[in-house]
Amino acid sequence: MKLHNAMWPGLVGKEPGTDHPPISLEHMLELTAAANVNGRKFDGIDSFLFHPHTDPDASDDELKRIADLVASHNLKIGSLVAPIWPGTVGDSAMGDAEARRKFLLAVEKACRIASIFNQHGVREYGVIRIDSASSVGDWAKDPAGNTQRIAETFREAGKIAEQHGERLAAEGEICWGGMHSWQAMLDTLEATAMPGIVGFQADLAHTYLYLMGYNAPEAALLKEGYTDEEFWAAYKTMTDALRPWTIDFHVAQNDGSVHGTGSHDKTGRHCPADDPNGKIDIAKASTYWLKDAASRGMKHICWDGCMFSNETLETPATWQNILAAMIQVDQAL
């Protein structure tokens, strides 16, 4: 597997003029390229297509400049995060006609950028990441109807992606309506009914909260105080259900808590790879998701560690430890 680092931890939960301002794409690339564990380095990056890293309406020449910048660090570009949220380009996937039009426009812009990166030679694999851009509270006002609306929007988005030779991966998180539990996520994917085009992005931290039923007690597979045997039995239930849909994967750690900074809703807390309070055996858990990954077109895995302090993100040892954990995942496959 190719090993990628996410660029959006330099943006998510960051606010200009505070003690946690955004970290530039250039600096995130430098930190990524500097990591080296026994001669192995990151192979590439996954990127968020919004300011200040990438203008979703950037000219072809500006996008080629970004591609050259990434390539200058001997890195490839993999999966891309479409700017589907209100306040970026998009809006709620279960909203009114105008909101859903904006959602589809965001996917279209992401596909255009992906095509330029592909043609320029810096991108050879990866997906476009989406979510419902809708709160769990709003979804819960009409669960069945809203799941159908999300699925209809995802289907239209899938058609756009397919026309560009792309695939969409919906990242399951407890903060997104219709995607907030493993069962709700499965319902949405099955209602979308575009396997191979619209699939699932599994994140180790977020899916740990799925097990606990944080925003959906009825879908909990574990209770606090669980045994190791109970954990892996529950993990198998969840991964057996969602793995066939999984086309993108985030290596991460979680301590069982939720967290949100800036404008980001509370979601599964990302922890450093070596966090002593981490609940997840990263390498072992990853094998459950990545079994037969090649048959689902997966060529890379990406680290995701959002809402870390800037001090942590700008410490070289952070990336050494992350890269070491990624290598252990690759060796476990």
According to CATH, what is the class?
A: Alpha Beta
Tell me the number of structural domains. Answer: 1
Quickly count the helices: 11
Task: Kindly estimate the percentage of residues that lie in beta strands according to DSSP.
Answer: 5-15%
Order of helices and strands: EHEHEHEHHEHEHHEEEHEHH
Give the mean pLDDT.
96
* Uncertain residue segments: 260-264
CATH architecture: Alpha-Beta Barrel
**Topology, number of strands:** 10
What does this structure look like?
The chain has 333 residues and is an alpha/beta fold. The protein has a single domain, classed as Alpha-Beta Barrel (TIM Barrel), CATH 3.20.20. 41% of the residues lie in helices and 13% in strands. It has 11 helices and 10 strands. The protein has helices spanning 25-34, 60-71, 97-120, 136-139, 143-163, 182-192, 204-212, 228-242, 282-290, 310-313, 316-332, and strands at residues 2-6, 44-48, 76-81, 128-130, 168-171, 198-203, 246-251, 258-259, 267-268, 300-303. An 8-stranded parallel β-barrel has the order 1-2-3-4-5-6-7-10, surrounded by 7 helices. Helix 6 (182-192) links the parallel strand 5 (168-171) and strand 6 (198-203). Mean pLDDT is 96; it is low at 260-264.
Keywords:
8-stranded parallel barrel; two-stranded antiparallel ribbon; alpha/beta; 10 strands; 13% strand; TIM Barrel; 333 residues
